[in-house]
Amino acid sequence: MTSVRIDGLSKSFGGRKILHDLDLTVEAGESFTLLGPSGCGKTVLMRLLAGFDRPDAGTIRIGDRLVAGDGADVPPDRRGLGMVFQDYAVWPHMSVADNVAYPLKIARTAADERDRRTRRAIGQVGLAGLEARMPSQLSGGQQQRVALARALVSEPSLLLLDEPLNNLDANLREEMRFEIRELQQKLGITVIYVTHDQEIALAIADRIGVMDETGRLRQVGTPDDVFDRPIDAFVYRFLGVANFVPMRRVGATWLFPDGAAVWPGEAPGLAGEHATFGCRPFDIELARDGDGLAGVVRRASFLGAQMDYLIEAGGVTFRAATDSRRALDPAQRFEEGETCRLAFRGSQWFDTAVADIEGGAR
Amino acid sequence: MKIRHLLASALLLVGFQALPAQAQEKLYVYTSMKESLIGQLKTAFAAKHPEVKLDYQSAGAGKLMAKIAAERESGKILADVLWTSEVPDFYQLQEQGVLQPYVPKEIKALVNPLPDYDGTFTAVRLGTLGIAYNTRLIKTAPKTWADVQGAAFKGAYGIANPALSGTAYMSVSLLVRQFGWGYMEALRANGAKMGKGSGQVVDDTASGDLLGSLAVDYITLDKVDKGATLALVYPPEMLVIPSPITIFKGSPNAEAAKKFVDFVLSKEGQTIIAEEGTLPVRSDVQVPDRYPLPPVADAMKRAIPVDYKSMMAEKEATIKKFTDIMQK
Amino acid sequence: MTGSFRFGTPQILFGLAVAILVIFVAVPVLLIFFNALWVNGSLNIADMVKVLSERETYKALINSLILASGVTVTGTIVGTFFAWLVTRTDLPYKGAMKVLFLVPFMLPSFIGALAWKMLLSPRSGYINRFFIETLGFPGPIFDIYTYQGIILVETMYLFPFVFIQVCGALERMDPTLEESARISGADLFTITRKITIPLVAPSILSGALLIMLYSMAHFGTVAMLGIEAGIYNIPTLIYERIHQSAGSFAAIRTGTVLSTVLVIAAALIIWLQNRVLSKGRYQIIAGKSFRPTEIRLRGLRLPLLAFCIAYIGFTIVLPTTTIFLVGGLKTYGLPIAVENMTFDNYHHILFEWDLTRDAIWNSIGLGLAAALITMFAGVIISYVIVKMKVPGKGMLEFLGMLPFSVPGSVIALGVILAWSGKYGVNIYNTIWIILVAYIARYMAFALKANSAALEQVHDSLVEAARASGATMWQALRDIVIPLVRPGMVAAFFLIFLPALRELTVSVLLYGPTTRTIGVAIYTLNEDGETVYAAAMAGVALIIIVTAEVVVKRVFKIEK
């Protein structure tokens, strides 16, 4: 178990600054996820951690050891970590067992010990019985597990995972992310996981660090924190589908863009005249009447688990979602063209313009 | 692990190559003598002096001199011994001071055809050149040097390139001395050709590519021995060209070199030379009767006289003039 | 990126790659240009012009052009015709024919030249003798010592360059292109002229330029057949100058000037070829293999089959048989008859004669050593070029590919300039100087094969090994090398096989004990030891063909 401390880390490639003055601490035994859009520099950060690239400035400490910066430059093979790559990087010329045993072979572990641990690692990822297979005879998911077993076999104190589930199909991805979480908890190792998929991040992380495309860490916190208490619109938007509505304050009331509809809930304590109000589809509760915001259903789509609505209200179009069990109850079901009332169970207010938010996060 | 196998076999091979080269005296002989002669001598020499590993470079005198010049330029002459028939080269090398005088042990038994002998170089054989002709295609043997200017040899008489072959240079020079440049011009008018080396013109005569050629004795007789439809005739004015041998100054293998010089001049060495069909320089060695070679004394009497010193000066001009005539 | 450059394995690899290329390739080639242009420390163009304006020099240049153009034209016609025949028609035994048409690639052309000299020499060639002596012809039917003779022989051995390219293109061409023309009512001739030929033109042209490049720089055939008739091309003139002009520096300088001309000509051809290829790349022919429609030859089927068999018999079987038979003659010029045959020549060259035995071992040793060294050096350099993010790797790539465009005689000359004592190292007259030249000459082969293999090895495979605790060297050893091994094996044989029969380079570099197989055959022929030359050529053919066959069987490089 090892902590990781990053101080003032910067890195450029060919004149383009990827990381700026980044600070981050990952606690020992923690499952930490770096979440960010593609191209945000999270993979660069990962490679700096692993030692494949060197930082332009700043330091990296793994445990008490300075591994990069300040004159230190510990090569990857001496950082004592395990790593799983996006494309698995399973060596095609070695069998499953050889792949997994390789780190032990390099470490000159005694043969019987090596066999034991290799078998155990292969068992841990559920590949027992496939030891003699060559990678070309394995499915993508199985190759993924080989890569994982290989990273785990030397019992590293730190495991780096670079979007390893990206290339898997949805079911497998879901299964694997729980397995990784389970293994991490069982082995108690420190895991740093890089992804752009907020679902994976939320599912496996103790803490999440959200990065933006300029290479800055916007927020670091528990999944609850970043999902429910986003520090800014970027984080909020990145963690799930959201409606953003430009609002205008007249005195103590906030008006929707049509200039007539009034914000029905508690007014936010914002000083400016303009603000953006954000809510997620599930935050909107629909009712046939009441004192909510009046709207018209423009489109209603049944998606199985949920009912998806597009509702015109207050001069904008909202996306709302309802649990299917409720939506299919005829009393709760809205058809296209019906009027409805919108209540907001949750909301976030930002003093950023909508255009900046929309432009900022894809 | 196929690569490992390859590596191993390559190392083995390299080792194989390196082994026999060790722990022996080495000797490099540069000679214009052909394989049939130098090969025999090498075998006999190896039997007598197994401690010496002899390697030879057999090529035309012109090429050898070019190689030696290149080696001198690079600062390292590989050759320990030089043995060709281009006598002026030896006088030139002597003047340049790169030769190591060595008077052979059995000097008393030798006939010396070279003026001002001081041991710098010693004649090993007396090469003779005559007219070789293809007996399959030519029915009447030529008798004089002028006969090859006739219709019988039209377009098919060859002389080796004097820039490449020492014997060819010496012969051209002597024939011009005796008969004037008109002789060469008449040959050319009859379609005579300049070939490459002295071996090749004979081979071409044997094959029929040429009907006749200015030919070195032992090269021709070796092929006759093997069944070639060739004959060698000597016109009255004979071309007798000594082939000297010499040791380079500063040779790291000087002792081995001396052994070789003594060997080729010994009765054993001279017998091999005579057996191959060329005139020895020892009076106690006779050429076998099956060869049409005249006795040494007779050959010397009939020989066109040679002035080596003036030849040395004229060499370049002679070669150029001859080349110009033959390429006209 | 600057400042704190750490010194570790990547730097060692990079340094090694640069050192190998500079020492083996850059220095010799640069010395050629330097010596051609600079005399006693100052630029001297006038001298260069003087050398070039000498009659012999520009005649050699013109001869090179005449011969290369002639061979290119005939080789292209022959290659294209046979390629069409074996891919697009219903010729019987097409598959076997296709394999047979590739056989000339295996055979060294100077051995072919030797054989044709024995067959078509005006007076003594066996074919000419047969016509004159048996059929009573007044004179020879063909004289091999002519421009036509040289072009004929070179064509026989070089046409596969076009044949291979065009076969590939025709096999990959979408047959619907032709079919649609057929439906529109065009006849076969029109289709061939208007559709097929234009579509495969880039392949034809690139094959043709390969022939041209090869022929321009070709030594063996011209040396065997041309020198006596006064036909020089640039490589043979370089050879003559170096071997005859008493080794004076003037001769070497003439050589450097000639080399410069040759390099420029070669560069021009390569430039042309690249243009052709970049234009042709996006046309018609995509990777897929179609089953092309076959043109029915009808009545011509059997006559054309007979023609192909006759061609193969005439160009492969006849000369090869001649070599073996003449090698068994007691002396050259005798009729080929049982009473004139002997095994003595073969016995002599294999078991008695140091010259030929050395030559065989030298060639095998040189081939193995050059192939091994170049193979490993090739991996290192390709690794730097393909995998490392370092400045200046474009330069490395250029250097590595340079010998591809630099003819063998030029490399040999450069190696003489660099390694004969002027700069402290004197390996002239030793086997090492030939090895050094081979390494330079074949480096491009190794780079091509290894780069292709390395590009398949994704970076993350190496990084995964590093993350697993492997050092750079361990990652190279355990991951990279095993994965590029097919490329390395290919490189090994791409080098070993041609090195085995090499002549152009070694003929300028050999010393008393460092003859190669090629040099031994060439000098034996030059010395008038024709039967030994033939016997040696026969032995060489057996070695070369055995090596080729073993290689293909064991390593299955064939696609």
Overall mean pLDDT of chain A: 86
Number of domains of chain A: 3
Q: What would CATH call the class of the largest domain in chain A?
A: Alpha Beta
- How many helical stretches of chain A? 10
Number of strands of chain A: 20
CATH H-level superfamily title of the largest domain in chain A = P-loop containing nucleotide triphosphate hydrolases
Summarize this structure as a short list of keywords or feature phrases.
heterotrimer, A: 362 residues, alpha+beta, Rossmann fold, OB fold (Dihydrolipoamide Acetyltransferase, E2P), 3 domains, five-stranded antiparallel beta sheet, 10 helices, 20 strands, globular, B: 328 residues, alpha/beta, D-Maltodextrin-Binding Protein, domain 2, 2 domains, eleven-stranded mixed beta sheet
Question: How would you describe the overall organization of this protein?
Answer:
The complex is a heterotrimer of chains A (362), B (328) and C (559). Chain A has helices spanning 42-50, 96-106, 111-124, 140-153, 170-187, 198-204, 223-228, 233-238, 324-327, 354-360, and strands at 4-13, 16-26, 31-35, 57-62, 65-69, 72-73, 81-84, 158-162, 190-195, 207-211, 217-221, 243-250, 253-255, 274-279, 284-287, 293-302, 306-313, 316-323, 339-344, 348-350. With 362 residues, chain A is α+β, with helices and mostly antiparallel strands. Chain A folds into three domains: 1-80 and 156-170 and 181-240, Rossmann fold; 91-152, no CATH class; 243-360, Nucleic acid-binding proteins (OB fold (Dihydrolipoamide Acetyltransferase, E2P)). In chain A, strand 10 and strand 11 (217-221) form a beta hairpin. In chain A, helix 2 (96-106) packs across helix 3, helix 2 runs parallel beside helix 4 (140-153) and helix 3 packs across helix 4. The mean pLDDT of chain A is 86. Chain B has twelve helices and eleven strands. Chain B is globular and about 55 Å long. In chain B, 50% of the residues are buried. Mean pLDDT of chain B is 88; it is low at 18-23. In chain C, 74% of the residues lie in helices and 1% in strands. Chain C has helices at residues 9-37, 45-53, 55-88, 94-106, 109-120, 126-134, 147-158, 160-172, 175-183, 188-216, 220-225, 234-244, 249-280, 301-327, 344-352, 354-387, 393-405, 408-419, 431-455, 459-467, 472-500, 506-509, 517-526, 530-555; strands spanning 38-39, 42-43. Chain C is an all-alpha fold and 559 residues long. The model of chain C is unreliable at 1-5 and 280-289 (pLDDT under 50). Chain C folds into two domains: 8-41 and 343-559, MetI-like fold (Orthogonal Bundle); 54-327, MetI-like (MetI-like fold, Orthogonal Bundle), CATH 1.10.3720. Chain C has 24 helices and two strands. In chain C, helix 3 packs antiparallel against helix 10 (188-216), helix 4 (94-106) runs antiparallel to helix 8 and helix 15 packs across helix 24. Chain C is globular and about 80 Å long. A two-stranded antiparallel ribbon of chain C has the order 1-2. In chain C, a hairpin with a 2-residue loop joins strand 1 (38-39) and strand 2 (42-43). Classes of the chains: A alpha+beta (362), B alpha/beta (328), C mainly alpha (559). Chains B and C meet through helix 1, helix 2, strand 2, helix 3 and helix 7 of B and helix 12, helix 16, helix 21 and helix 24 of C.
